[in-house]
Every structure is written in C-alpha cells, then in structure tokens.
Amino acid sequence: MDGYRGARTAVIVGAGVAGLTAAAALARDGWQVEIAEAGPPEAAAGWGLCLSGPSLRALDELGLADACLAAGYGMSTITHVDAGGKPADEVRLPRLIAARRPSMAGIARPALHRVLHAEAERCGVVVRHGMTVAAVDQEGGQVRVQLSDGTARTVALLVGADGIRSSTRGLLGFEATLDFHGQMVWRALVPRPAWATGIHQFAGKAGTAGLVPLSDGQAYVFLTENGVERSSLPGAALAPRLRQLLGAFPGRVEEIRSLVSGSESVVRRPVLTMLLEGAWNRGSAVIVGDAAHAPAPQMASGAALAIEDGLVLAAELRRHESVGAGLEAFVGRRAQRCRTLVQTSVAIVGLEQARRHHEAYPLVDSCHRLMAEPA
C-alpha cells in the first residue's frame, strides 16, 4: 500500500525517548510534527540508562546508533555476582547491529536526549516547551487538540508519549493502575572503576546492587531496596543511607560504596509498573512508551520498547491507507511483546524479594534473547 494519503499532521505529547523517536520517524516519512512538552528546554534530567541490543538496533535504523555509542559506553556482558561476592555467571548478549559492535551501551540520560532532540529538530520537528494538552476531541477522523496555552490544533494524529503518569491517557478515556512492588531503587553517579567494562549485578541478603558504565570516566551505581514502603528522604540523608545499604555487600561493592560522594549525585525512586490492557488507540490517537507499558527497571529494556514504538508506529502508518487502520496494526504488532517484558520484569522483582537470584538470572537471559527477535 502507499500508506496514509491525507494531510500528515501530528501532535505528540512528551519529548522523552518515546516522543522524540516517534517524532523523528514520522517526520522522515513526511509528517508535519509538533511536540508539546511540559518541561523546560534543558536536556532531560536523570542519571543513566542502558540501551540494550534492541535499542541499538532501532536507533541504527534511524542512523543514530553510532552517535549514542560515541556519547555512551559500549558493552557486551552482564556479570552476576552471588551473595558471597563470587561471580555466579556471565551473560554474553547477542550483537544485533554488527558482529564487531557492542551488544548494548550505557548512556547518561541527558546525552541520549541531546542525540534524539537534535535528530528530531534536523527532521523539522517543532518542540514547544512549557506546554501540554488540556483537552482532546475527535470527529471525522481528525483530532482537535486544545493546548495548555489556550491555542488549538486540528491534526490527523495524536500520540501520547508523556510517561507512566500520562495525562493524555486519561484525556482519551483509558484507565490504568500504577503498581508499586515494595521496592525503592537508588541510583548515584560515580567515577567508572577500570574493571567495570560491562554491567555488574550483585546479589545481597536484602537487596540487589549493580554498576553500569556510562562513559570512559563515569558510571552509575544502582541498588534495589526490598520490602519497604513508598517514602521520601531529605536530600542530605540520601548519600549516607546509600553508603549504609551498600555496606551489606561484600567484594567489589566496597569500592563502589566509597565512590558515592554526595547527595547531589543520588536519587531514590519507587519501582512502579503499568500495563495498559486492551487497545492503546482510540480513533486517530494512540498511547506509546511508558504511557502504555512501563516495566520495572530490572530488564533494562524500557528504553528499547519506547524506541521501537516510534519506528513501528511510523512503519504501520506508512503501510495503511487510514490512520485508524495503521494504529490498529501498530497495537496488534506491539502488545504481546510489551506485555511479556512488563510481566517478566514483575516476575524478576518477586524472585529478588524472595532472594531466589539463581532463578532470576536465567529469566533475565531468556527475556533478553526474546527481545533480540525482530520487533
């Protein structure tokens, strides 16, 4: 098919990973795209994330894999260390973009945002900051989008890419529950130790810790705290508390612990998941990324799903003669893959809390291999 033949106009809500990727992919197909982003123009905040093999494969389709590898740190192994401080196994992930290129990459969130934002702007996407969507009406295959500054747009496509707490989801009439799993996850920026050339994950008696390289000089340490209530701590208490929690781990974690220096480098967040059951599309509007399917961080694949969403969305709209048909095909193609990842991430959380790490490791490995299949 020649694809959608009407006026190719779109509003995307959210300039995160999902929104920027979808915007660039659509703009390359000739869509006129505008992004409404509630936040300021500065690069996205946050510590770091892992671009898994499927992430790099999708970014490679956009011609951005090399830029992300240059801005981050390429890796191909995950080393699991048992509660006694001894290596339990080493997972060698498949190389999806070339035999001599890394399997995955750690990257600082601001660095990834800069790469995606620059590509979207290069493709002609207009990003409007300090703005969101206040109301949505659909009629005759068009979407009337009322923006928070009082202006309105009538477009062929609305994409909600505004994260796990998406307001667009509610405006379209979708109901979703955010599930808390009794874990708080800690992250802190630290200098990269010379031995950290891949991801290291350490099993503990009461939690899990790890280290992800982000560049030649930087990494982030993570720790999942099990069996806790959702709560907040004052900024000054974060670094001392994280150092205390890391003190329960033997071996190389002691070196990581000594690198956690101050509250400005430490964050603590609840582990939340969300899965929008049923359709993600209504008329000429669709929900993507964490707004539709937010996994726990244990699989390090939330970014992969978000990036894939943007490419598959553009591909299905290209293949179908109406936006509605393209969105139906998009959801049909994505739902099972995203559901499997979210459910697997929740299962891994349960195994961690039960201290059954020996069962969690093979599950992580098998899910990574499932994700290596084409999107």
Provide the β-strand percentage band.
25-35%
CATH-defined fold name of the largest domain? FAD/NAD(P)-binding domain
**Sheet of most strands:** 8 strands, mixed
Please trace the helix and strand order, writing H or E for each element.
EHEEHHEEEEHEEEEEHEEEEHHEEEEHHH
| Total individual domains | 2
CATH architecture tag of the largest domain: 3-Layer(bba) Sandwich
Helix content: 25-40%
Shape: globular
**CATH homologous superfamily title of the largest domain:** FAD/NAD(P)-binding domain
| Total count of helical runs of at least 4 residues | 10
Secondary structural class:
alpha+beta
Mean pLDDT: 92
Total strand count, please?
20
Give the CATH level 1 class of the largest domain. Answer: Alpha Beta
**Which blocks of ≥5 consecutive residues have pLDDT under 50?**
none
Distance between the termini: 21 Å
**Major β-sheet strand ordering:** 6-5-14-15-16-13-17-20
What's the Cα radius of gyration? 21 Å
In terms of topology, how is this protein built?
Blueprint: E1 9-13, H1 17-28, E2 32-37, E3 48-51, H2 53-61, H3 65-71, E4 73-75, E5 77-81, E6 87-92, E7 104-108, H4 109-122, E8 126-129, E9 133-139, E10 142-147, E11 152-155, E12 157-160, H5 167-171, E13 179-191, E14 199-203, E15 207-213, E16 218-226, H6 235-246, H7 253-259, E17 266-275, E18 281-282, E19 285-287, E20 293-294, H8 302-319, H9 323-353, H10 357-371
Parallel strand pairs: 1-2, 1-12, 2-8, 5-14, 12-19
Antiparallel strand pairs: 3-7, 4-7, 5-6, 9-10, 10-11, 13-16, 13-17, 14-15, 15-16, 17-20, 18-19
Helix pairs in contact: 1-4, 1-8, 2-8, 6-7, 8-9, 9-10
